[in-house]
Write a structure and sequence with these properties.
about 130 residues
Length: about 130
Amino acid sequence: MDPAKNEGRSILVFRSPKDPGGMTRAEFDLSNGQISGKWLYLLHTTTWGQGNSQVGKISLYGKNGVLKSLELQSGRDVSDWWNPQRHSNAFPAAFWQNVSGGNVGVYVSKFRLPDNLGEIRKISFEATGAV
C-alpha cells in the first residue's frame, strides 16, 4: 500500500469470490496530518461485479470522536470494470481498450462528509459484500 515502496504506485485489492486471497480491510492512520474536507472522492472499480448489493464500507474517524460510515453499493457507487457505464454516484473516470478488444475502466464516486466530522484521524476500507 506504500507507494514509496512500489515505484510511486499503490492499489488496494479486496477479497471477492473470484479473489479469496484479497484484503478484507485496510486502515490508514491520518492523525499526524490536518486532513479535513467536505467531500471524499473515491477512484475504484469491481471485477465480476453484478447486481445491486453492498460491496464495501468506508469508515471515517474524526479527531473529535465523530464517526461517519459510508456504504458502497454496486450499481450505484461502483460497477464492473468491463463496459463502464454511468450510475447515480459512479462516473467512468478513465476507460481504455484491453488486449481482448473490450472496453474497461475505473469509476469516480463522490461522498458528502458531515460538517461536524472535522479533521480526520483515521480512514478504513472494508469489503462487505459478495462482489
